Amino acid sequence: MNTTPPPQTCPEWCLLRHEHAVAATLPDCRHLLHLSPMTLVPVVVRETTPHDGQVLSHARARECAVGLLQVDGETYLSCDTDDAHELTLTIESAQRLITAIRPYLRVARAT
After folding, report:
1. Where do the structural domains in the chain lie, given as residue ranges?
2. Which residues, 6+ apart, have CB-to-CB distance to 103 below 8 Å?
3. SS3 label, residue 83
4. In whole numbers, what is the pLDDT of the chain averaged over residues?
5. pLDDT of residue 56
6. Pairing of the two strands 34-35 and 54-71
7. How far apart are alpha carbons 3 and 61 in whole angstroms?
8. What is the pLDDT at residue 22?
9. What's residue 38's pLDDT?
10. 75 Cβ partners below 8 Å, 6+ apart?
């Protein structure tokens, strides 16, 4: 009985198009990182810094790149800021986060 999954190719959304470069060395693209085009989203974040025994907090403009990546057949939602903070979530986890955020947005918008 063969339990090896069938070979995979790059997802249609992958910018990297590995097939030609690795066709001779890998049987498929399953273990390669696949990356979608990223959408840049301007965001404002709160940053805290210690100063003279106190914690200061200030708003700072950042840019967040949002897109998809896939490795080992699993697709993730990736949110990377320009200061190297990264949040890479399974699609299910991203949906749970969206669900958890919605009620807070409703409350914040009502105030």
Report:
1. 31-110
2. none
3. coil
4. 86
5. 94
6. antiparallel
7. 49
8. 55
9. 96
10. 11, 68, 69, 90, 91
